[in-house]
Amino acid sequence: MAARSGIQASPAGGAAKRGTRAASPGLRRAAAALGTVALALAPAGCRDRAVTAPAATAVEAMPFVAGYDHTCALAAGGAAWCWGANGDGQLGDGTQTTRIVPVPVAGGLRFAALTAGGNHTCGLTADGTAWCWGANDDGQLGDGTETARLLPAAVAGGLRFRTLTTGHSHTCALTSAGAAWCWGANDAGQLGDSTLTNRPVPTAVAGGRIFVSLALGSAHTCALTEAGEAWCWGWNYNGQLGDGTATPRNAPVAVTGGLAFRWLGAGTNHTCGLTAGGAAWCWGSNADGELGTGSFRGQSTPGAVTGGLTFVALTLGAEHTCGLVAGGAAYCWGANGGGQLGDTSLSDRAGPDPVAGGLSFAVITAGFAHTCALTQGGAAFCWGDDYFGQLGDGGSATRPAPVAVAGGGGGFTAVSAGFTHTCAVRTSAAYCWGNNSYGALGDGSYTHRITPVPVAGGLGVSGVAAGFYHSCGLALDGAGYCWGFNGDGELGIAFKPDTTLPVAVSGGLVLRTMTASRSHTCALDGAGAAWCWGGNGYGELGDSTRASRTAPTLVAGGLVFADVSAGSDHTCGVSAAGTAYCWGSNASGQLGDGTGLGRPYPVAVASGRSFQAVAAGGNHSCALAADGGAWCWGYNAFGQLGDGTLEQRLSPVAVTGGLVFTQISAGYAHTCALTAAGAAWCWGADDHGQLGDGGYTSRPAPAAVSGGLVFASISAGGEHTCALTPAGAMYCWGDDYFGQLGDGTSVTRTSPVPVAGGMVFGD
To answer: Which helix (H) or strand (E) holds 15?
Structure first.
């Protein structure tokens, strides 16, 4: 379904059951702009906060936050990603285009904390500098203007903060000393400066109290002192200030009841707190059961949440509340017209109800009518209203139970980029995406996929190999399985039409590595013997013949290999002694033996050097020397040999630049490699952006992949490249005609984009 763009009215599910209570000033503003009577709240505090003030240099971590109809998260290294509604630029990607999967916030800033408000977002860098973007009609960005920003803008005043929190149209922050400053809308006194005047720059909260945390709602604000005292100010028609009245306040007033809290959170018109023992208390509006007291009756003083649960974290949505108990189980209550409670229903609940799916979470955050959470491993899940794509699952359908965020799963351990598809291993399961014309994705269909789909059959694998139109997986017990096109026997079974499901490679060999290319497949067994099968018209199977094989055949010569790599019509390997050998087609010198003669058996590469790894590409080959230097040979019309020329080479030449690599991978007409520090460099053809340097210019020498990401492994395919971070997040770039980048689109990318399910948040 096409993504919607711009600001539109929320769907019926999100606007259901709003009652007849009076709207706050902020709520009325949202209704005028959006055609609904609901707004987002500030997701104050996704994690529990201690009641002792943190060190002056500490910025409180908030890695996952939900706004009105958008969501943001921090990935490895502090990069911010957002998705959902973007009519005011609240995603920070420089556009106003709604996004149904995560997109990076532009500008290259690295954040330690994020917070999402109504239609704006803010972040803190590690040094406490505040940046905001999105809607700014009330000065909520704090940059001294009322101009919306599509990119992060620095908050004026030069203050350094340790925590930052957003409401619908206002923002507040605490300095390292605990002083509270607010800016933006102030029509209900929510800035707490004893006036009703909007402020486009930070203004001090009246009273001079020292606070340790903040919570912002629609048009009210609350704060917690070191002693656990709760103070609130702003709109109070529903008793959300907790002072026993319905009187608005433009300066802090104490919450009644004498309770000591360790955490506070604010929704549209309700507020909740956690005591040191984990008991939850709420006050304010309760028309949808958001107070969790077992009734739908509001109250202006704290009331205990029913059920006797002990919470370690809470989060407040517009008219719903969620919490985590020890062990990570999630419970929600309140409004559920959009499925935001995650219990598979659309029924409101007046008390805690378990979120479906049995997942265990470490962080939880609630928006207007959706909720999101992170597992301990950084996998992101969301549920509820998805009209603007705020669930980030690549669609726009309401989800009343958790669904995985595209880009938020992580957990990948291996990747192989094929010609026009990609396969990977995640939690010992094989996933593939891209071109499926011949069943190379192994999901039982011939449907192209733009995001990863599991290979059918539940096969546990330790590795995968993606060829041109077939794929293979190495089972945990060492058995080989293949699927897809089988016109030349490349699946390792008798000649028959292609198969969309994995089939066992015949012969019963126990293997330790597999490699696949155009029409053949090769593997190493535990003893280092090389076996190949499939098409053999050029001698690429290395068995001294040119006869195709439908079952593994031993490569001639009795060599013991440490590495093997299948190219288009040739194969190369490195022996245990460090000698490189190649066999098959040699029309472009890809065998590296100094001749142009094809060989149906291994011949030594003319080098005299000791190699540690080898990579066979389309019509070229590369290898890493023992000292980490890269050497290549063969076809070079696009600079894929990396020697600074376009001259074909019949024997190895050094890749220019003096870089020291730990991994190398050869694609069809390009090559990529990783340094020990995890920096990615590519060279050769770049007509589809496969070099990842942000352009389309072929390079005869190594060019740095843009983005500064650190990778643990890399794989060059036909005209695309994929790589894994040490945390298990996957990024791809280049041609995406068949969806082989796995980012939920079919758009060519000249720099790395995250694969759906391949990003770890909160890292």
So the answer is: helix 12-15
